[in-house]
Amino acid sequence: MKISHFVLSGAFVALLAPASFAANAKVCFEAENPLKIESPLKKVGNKTDVSGTGYLEIPWDQNKTKGIGSATYKFNVKTAGTYYVWARTFWANGCGNSIEAKVNGGADKILGEDGTYDAWHWVGGKARVALKAGPNTLTLHNRETGVRVDQFFLCQDGDYTPVGTRKVTN
Ligand SMILES: [Ca+2]
Fold first, then answer.
1. Distance 5 CA to ligand 1 centre (A)
2. Distance (Å, rounded) from C-alpha 98 to C-alpha 114?
3. How far is the CA of 54 from the centre of ligand 1 (A)?
4. CATH superfamily assigned to domain 22-155
């Protein structure tokens, strides 16, 4: 009797498990709305192919200002946990195809280094960061010039890929 009870309990737990593991809390905010911004980073008003009121740009300058300036964002999170970081980006040319973001003062995360130019597309899904319930901070650094960012998106499911523009949660 004891063994069959154990087997049944195990089966019950196995049935419940997929629902709890499928949890995928999502956080999204616009890149053109930083709390603080330093030159050469700038906000660009534009409603073509982007979400919100525009995007954040580090204008192409042959990477003369590389390493200079940042943008800081504050965003709210309901569910604390580990999240994958994504950004909806546009690379102006082959000399700038990455961004660097730091979340809650943690390690710098590099997003991009891909080969999609002249088109809005999502990069990320590899770097993970710890988010807490309540206000969190993301700082975007000038790693390369000639880049644009429309939105930032964070989610808990590593198999999830954002498509198009995302509904903002902040
Ligand atoms: Ca935007």
1. 55
2. 8
3. 4
4. Galactose-binding domain-like (2.60.120.260)
